[in-house]
Write a structure and sequence with these properties.
The protein has helices spanning 21-25, 39-52, 64-68, 84-92, 105-118, 130-137, 169-176, 190-201, 225-232; strands at 74-78, 97-101, 123-126, 143-149, 177-187, 206-208, 238-244.
């Protein structure tokens, strides 16, 4: 990654060290929440992390080819929750490499068990903050797609600043996408969907593939229990698909 030419790496006056947006503005891809682990989740986390989890090494470029042992389009999911849908998507798209990012340890343990039981070789996990990883380790124009499914909507106005989809983070995501790459966002919160569409519309380099309306659900994205509950409660599912020019 060439920090000298990266507009998302402003520098502290009088210093040659880059100061990332996460450090300057306190942006994070998560809010830590406590959670109990089941015996299976704990066992999977303890025995499988070394095999399927990618270590966070600040400043070291993420080498997807050596990590997966092959060359294939890289898709990054930010905040996969319990990871069942992530595993299903990876199984449905074996020609792509998937990196799921999550800080919630029970979810990591659950997805590790899914990787093992399904025999998935195209899925890895990063147990760390996505923003720090993307800033520090992911080269520009190296990601084929970003998946952001049902992030916390932070519905109260005073909490909107905590929402994941906002600039300058979307500028960072756009800079990491390769030409033709995509950002796929899904929410059941109407106001957040409108917010996200406005933010992504204003992000240079991104264009809405469905400018006349919302995106269609892709056939490979499974309908989750959370999504079914939202539909039962009368909340529409809104999807956005933006592409890198």
């Amino acid at each position: 990654m060439d920090d000298e030419t990266d507009p998302l790496k402003p520098r502290r006056p009088g210093s040659t060290d880059p100061v990332g947006i996460a450090a300057r503005r306190g942006i994070r891809s998560y809010v830590l929440r406590a959670g109990r682990m089941t015996d299976l989740q704990r066992s999977s986390f303890e025995t499988l992390s070394a095999r399927w989890c990618v270590p966070f090494r600040p400043g070291e470029s993420f080498a997807a080819e050596s990590t997966f042992g092959r060359t294939a389009p890289l898709v990054v999911e930010i905040g996969f929750g319990m990871g069942v849908a992530t595993a299903q998507i990876a199984a449905a798209l074996p020609d792509r490499n998937f990196l799921g990012i999550e800080v919630h340890t029970p979810g990591v343990g659950k997805l590790l068990s899914e990787i093992e039981s399904r025999g998935l070789s195209n899925l890895r996990i990063l147990h760390h903050d996505a923003v720090e990883f993307l800033e520090s380790c992911v080269p520009s124009r190296s990601v084929s797609g970003f998946h952001i499914f049902f992030p916390d909507p932070w519905p109260k106005k005073r909490h909107h600043k905590r929402r994941l989809i906002q600039r300058p983070l979307t500028d960072l995501l756009a800079s990491r996408l390769e030409p033709g790459g995509y950002l796929y966002f899904v929410t059941d919160w109407e106001e957040y969907a409108l917010w996200a569409r406005d933010v992504l519309d204003s992000t240079p380099g991104l264009a809405n593939r469905f400018p006349q309306g919302w995106a269609d659900r892709t056939p490979w994205r499974p309908v989750t229990k959370f999504e079914r509950r939202a539909l039962t409660e009368g909340r529409a599912i809104r999807e956005l698909w933006f592409e890198k020019a």
